[in-house]
Predict the structure.
Amino acid sequence: MICPRCAYEGVDTLACSPVPEAWEVLRCGRCLYAWRTTEPARRTSREHYPEEFRLTQDDLDRAPEVPAVPPVRR
Amino acid sequence: MAHDDLRSFLDELDRNRQLLRVTEEVAPEPDLAAAANAACRIGPNAPALHFDNVTGFTRARIALNVHGSWANHAIALGLPPETSVKDQVQEFIRRWEEAPVEPERRADPPWTRNTVTGDDVDLYAVLPLFRLNDGDGGHYLDKAAVVSRDPEAPDDFGRQNVGTYRMQVKGRNRLGLQPVPMHDIAVHLRKAEERGEDLPVAIALGNDPVITIVAGTPLGYEQSEYRLAGALRGAPAPIASAPLTGLDVPWGSEVILEGVVEGRTREFEGPFGEFTGHYSGGRRMPVIRVERISHRDDPIFEALYLGMPWTEIDYLIGPATCVPLQQQLRAEFPEVRAVNAMYTHGLLAIISTAKRYGGFARAVGTRAMTTPHGLGYCKVVIMVDEDVDPFDLPQVMWALSTKVNPASDLVDLPAMSVLELDPGSEPPGITDKLIIDATTPVPPDVRGSYGRPVTDLPETSQWIARLTSMLARGDS
């Protein structure tokens, strides 16, 4: 399993359905994208994930900080 | 009638046939968001939606589109569902002037029946979370009231803020938070971070409908949302102390989350389909660590769908945006007649005003941009005469088409502040702002040929009554 959004291979399980084996919620350890395994392929499969929402490590590194962390005043 | 919690309001919507209970099994995605999206497209009197049979869940109860029509907004204010938009805004103003109404501290809030703390905290075990739009980075809390206090004045009730901010669920006890720099929680967080501290927060989910309205109302920094809620409800807002943080939270909430915004931490968040009808880009934003969950038995999870307007959020914050802008302007300029700031939370505002002298209207327009809300919104302000109803868009179009000479009626203010979510801003958070002065010039401004307006005939009002009466009788 890889992240549909950033193709990272470190994916963990956030939640399992209260009804056994109905679905799981997975999370990417890098971009924090979360998805339920029963969602449409456009949200769960790297192959079908829309180009305009894909992310790279460079995108994550260049993401602006909002709001900026202010200097400490002691 | 004041509703003390979401449940009693849903019952009231039910009595007014403004609640649709979907009992057939639906998938969490894409059904829940698609249904709420569809409700927005049905028309201005769409019902709220309630789901209790969602695949994979055993006890999930989900309410959507609760404020998502003018009928529901009217019922939230205790008005007849057919009350016109203009009358709802007028009544909102009348009640605003009754504020402040002190809240009522009430014992034994129903959310104390169940508590989870420490390592047992698991948001997914309590909340039936689901995705809204395809490009969203995950599951979001988008209709909660977030409570925080000013770290420099922790005992000041007025500076306690109750606001709605988007929060991405990033883990069992972890949320991303978007504090727009113009909003009060960003001030609280900046002060905490300057002191090297975390910022305690309480997050109230599933609230009475007026709490949700005031949480989206741009009040002044020292104005209390609970005191305004009392005025809008016509009865004191019931509140209680959250057990971990001591913050004041609604007595009737379905779920209370408590924890801290981790000071000086930023982490990737988003994107998220926003009220601008566009996705916000991914940014590194603050993180909330949830340390305690309190909740009712079988809590109802409330969320709203948002996207290309109009969606539920536009009904929810429409009047709540018009009224503070109008009241803040009229405090200095009593000539202001009305403000329609219902478009994209007031990124565009239409203001009607009488004029003291030439150039006055555009001065009022400039002032709108420096109100607390205007600092982040009011990118385009259309000024119209006092006899033009800013809620009557054909009248506004008439004013634009006849009163405007682009040679001097467009006032462009370069590089002004705007919320970063404005997709037109460049860089994000900076934009030119525009006043379109569609008022009739008055001396010493003598431009144009406006000396002979065509007005309704003096006898017209009598004929309106006569024709209306004939129509009511069914005369042919």
